[in-house]
Amino acid sequence: MGEAEAANGRPVARVLLDSALPQLDHLFDYAVPGELAGELRVGQRVRVPFRSRDRKSFGYVIGFAEHSDFGGELAPVADIVTPVPQLTPEVWRLARAVADRAGGSAGDILRLAIPTRQVRIEKQHAAGTADDPGAHDRPYAPAQEEARLAELLAEGERLALTASHGPIRLETGEWVGSWAEQLARAALAVHAGGRSAIVVVPDYRDLDQVRDALAARGHAGIVRVDSRQSNAERYAGFLRALDPVPRIVLGNRSAVYAPAHRLGAILMWDDGDPVLAEPLTPYVHARDAALVRAEQSGAGLLFSAHSRSAEVERLVMLGYVKAQVNPPRRTRVLHADASVVPDAFAGRVPEFAARAIREGLRHGPVLVQVATPGYAPVAVCGECGDLARCGACAGPIGFRTAARGACRWCGEFATDWRCPTCGGRHLEQRGTGSERTAEQFERQFAGTRVLLSDGEHPRERVDARPALVVATRGAEPLAAGGYRTVVLLDVERLLGIETLRAGEDCLRWWENAAALAAPDGVCVIASGGGPVVRAFATGRADEWLRSELRDRHALRYPPSVRVASVTGGPVEVERALATLDGLPGVDHLGPAPLPPGGRAGTPPGLVRAIVRFDYGHGAEVARRLRGALVADAAGSSSRTRGKQPGRARPEALRLRFDDRGVFDS
DNA sequence: AGCACGCCGACT
DNA sequence: GTCGGCGTGCTC
Description:
single chain, alpha/beta, GIY-YIG endonuclease, Rossmann fold, 4 domains, seven-stranded parallel beta sheet, six-stranded parallel beta sheet, DNA-binding
């Protein structure tokens, strides 16, 4: 840390202030006072006077200069908060570029990148008494193939890898997905080459698997970035990442912003998982941040997944990312055509799937993936068993009270319902949630151990003994040795989710579940068919994705174009859109009224426009919309005055770039 | 966000 | 003339 650039006699310090105000998102010049001249360094957190002599604000020193362009007299830097230069030049450049690309403030990115300081932890670290598990790491000797991969990555290669299915047993006896072992080896090989590696995974269950795989190879000296950590743990890890030593950083979406000495590669697992989309402003997806960082730092990039995201496929088609050529090992998939099996849905599962379950249960655990947790009673036609749909909006009909069916989407009661398929008039209740399914299985497969795992009560692992594991998509436990059988239910329902990415999401859910099967296990998908199901069953998901991308390209849907939603009062939105006039490759949908109420209690009268633009114009679109936002925010204080304080001005402009959900109903 | 500056209407 | 209303813009 001693290498951070010092003031070196230069009298001006350039500081980025901590502020949520967009109009303050630029550097402010301060005088370097004589008494701090010897200590002040780039990256340090400082306290500076702001707005008046005695009001202080925090910020980071971004650089030094001989003179300032500011007309007035410079106020002096008041204090150095910590001697540790927390903000490395590399992370600063990243934060600035990522914020600019997303129409946001660099400070918002830095909040994700830098944990709050803990004096105790800092003292321990400085004294060298901090716990450093890396001290006991065994040197790793990468296999030839791994060394070659690490070399390519360190040279800046960008790769898309389809990971093999199946779990793998570590030397420690622990089971992890083969993908985790593969990713761990790649990280270790990069590290063995004297470079840092950042491994980004969606959630803590993934993190645990990679951590176990690294530890089994003798590497426990990782830096973890994990939502389960206390702030002290997080800061201790942060300081270790800051050390001038190559590290392996392993963490969730904010790990892409971790400092790293000689960054060799960013490795990302399952970038299609929505958890990698940052929910805080400026809502930058970890994949996009990784792409920017790799480009800036010259580091390599590896996207690994069981099912490729549309975004990565687009980059592969452009030749920006290179796809792995050798086909990965894949679980055998049986498409059980539910539509040709008479009375297929008499029980919860079609009869042949029930047979596969019974067969699997003779040797080990069986996984059943369902769409929703709990009971989720839905209405079906009493005559033909078809899913009942609302007459008004075609939404699914649920039962809020046991007797009366009502639409889940619009609330319309299902009186005088008539089945469009067979003309039946009688609604029947059927439970499809995980708990309800588990109850049914306890009866249908009497004497079998039935285990539940869903978002609220996730189970990370199950043993190799026979058990029927009912899990919601994404919450499937890892089974020791793998599942004998993986059954995918509710296929039509999942495909019917009205999002632009339904097909892509389904492939990801199914592929990730199929990957949990034993090498000689089997995956059964119970469905009437359709292109997505066929693509999955035949292992041609990439082909399907390419045709999907071609369709989206024709319609100007993301990711073939970028999008930004512009929300606010009608006047504000119109003003923002006007700044885009004359830009080629840019159009917009709307503005359309935003439905009032909703999640955050949206007040009435607000509108939203969706701006679509080619990637090449992204920087200019972001710059102009950001300009409109700054102008709106700057004028807002006067307009707000007189109104009740506390509540933010609802008609204020809000920008959101690359939102996955803008085209969903 | 807050606070200063400045440009028009009512006042000692 | 000058006090003070609030709209406008800046904060190193």
